[in-house]
Specification:
binds magnesium ion; YbaK protein; 29% strand; Rossmann fold; alpha+beta; 573 residues; 9-stranded mixed β-sheet; BirA Bifunctional Protein, domain 2; binds adenosine-5'-triphosphate; 31 strands; 5-stranded mixed β-sheet; globular; 27% helix
Amino acid sequence: MRQSQLLMPTLREAPSEAEAASHQLMLRAGLIRQLAAGIYTYLPLGRRVLRKLEQIVREEMDASGAQEVLMPSMQPAELWRESGRYEVYGPELMRLRDRHDREFTLGPTHEEVITTLVRGEVNSYRQLPITLYQIQTKFRDEKRPRYGLLRGREFLMKDAYSFDADWEGLHRSYTSMYEAYHRIFTRCNLYFRAVEADAGSIGGEGGTHEFMALADIGEDTIAVCQSCSYAANLEKAEYGFHNQTAGNPSIVQNRQLSEPKRLHTPDIKKIDQLTEAFGLGAEAFMKTLIYLADGKPVAVIVRGDHEVNEIKVKNQLAAVHVELADQATTERVTGAPTGFAGPIGLHIPIFADYAVLNMESGIAGANEKDYHLHIEQPSSLILKAEAGDYRNAEAGDCCPRCADGRLAFHRGIEVGHVFKLGTKYSETLQAKYLNASGKEQPFIMGCYGIGVSRLLSAVLEQHSDHNGIVWPRAIAPYQVHVVPVSVKDAVQMDLAAHIAARLSAAGVETLLDDRDERPGVKFKDSDLIGIPLRIVIGKQAAEGIVELKVRKSGELHQMALEAALAFALGTDY
Ligand code: ATP
Ligand code: MG
């Protein structure tokens, strides 16, 4: 391709609206342009990279035995009403009407469509298992579209759906996708971790993993063991108890109850006020929070320096909805203004975090205005409270899986998601097959997404330097950039055209910078667009000598024509 003909509008400066490094690079290198918030056009370079990502995804999906389909974006609202999601999905669902005033949605995901398809076309266990996938544009009216392709309103997703006869089958389908995801992200040179995520009320054991590209801009927080492969989303991350004695009721119940001491704490309600008033660290206190679990008040107690993890509370209580209680409820159940809630004297279920039960002593609200209690051995509370893991894991906590690992925290971009759906959709949409004994059974389903356009941004978050993009070879828009220093010099131009033609003929994608620009401009653009190998044709063209520059390492080689061609045809860059 001749660069003079290529629509590749590069920018010297990063546009002010772009915060994320990947977004800036994509605008500067002329990969994308915005049409409306969260809605982008892919220019030729961006489109090429996107196609490469699609192709890697497609090859690995095919290798795993999944079959490609293409489903409509426009979906009858009726279908979404049938699954119950028309209302539940909320404002993220794009809705429209046709000329007959019939309601439609623009698909944010395709469980409804695929389940209906399979309901109609697959009816025997003999046709199972089957996994279908597509690579297609999705629509979500995100509240905060941002960071370019990282959170778009119109974006490219690979979504796959597996249908099995039983849970063992689902586990095999799930594992096969999980492994395919590992291959895909590895081929993209992504630094990633598969993390355990919360599956909510469905999914079962090991029911969902998210694939996280590690990057500071990521919106998710993940806990990663520094010794073993354990990694989990913050909402799900557990911690180990090897250095703790509490959490074992048999130890705790043998302890003596001692009388709590009342402390006058006028208007002192918050942990930071308490730490100041008592000159103690937050870990010397207990926080008692009143929640409404499916409308019923419960108390959750964590150490002052810990944060309640509402997902863990919700799972422990097997509740559908957990939220902090309103002020009136808190005052009613504690008999005191907010800020003075404590574990003693409550007549509602109490859930105490293991760390609280491990305290020698601690200060908690007295359920009385302007008073706190100093409690010796709060572990005695376990007699009334349900002990459990109700807090967020923290950096430095023991790993829950291995003997000596500690947890560290990273930010992650969710690039993929694998999920055991079970019968959630097959039950509601009545999608059944006949088993070997002729009995109707709902399909056991899994769903598997990859944000293909988000993946492009995630790769860029990890692969750039101060001069611009550094494409991994597998997804670079071109592998070789041929740059004659002066296009007015016929010898240089002839040699450049010759090299480009030879490489192209050998299947190496080559971009020839035939623009009549100053060398400085050309080299700056070349660094910015990040093609893995640059071949510069300059003064020594007459002797058939060129200069090679590897974008990733910056290494330079002076080479004669044939050696240079051999290098470009190899994989050392
Ligand atoms: P998020 O928590 O980031 O909103 P999600 O849980 O809504 O993601 P899924 O419904 O699991 O995402 O979608 C599958 C994949 O699609 C995600 O793993 C992600 O890579 C991608 N994705 C989701 N929303 C967007 C978006 N607005 N823009 C780009 N990619 C997205
Ligand atoms: Mg979302």
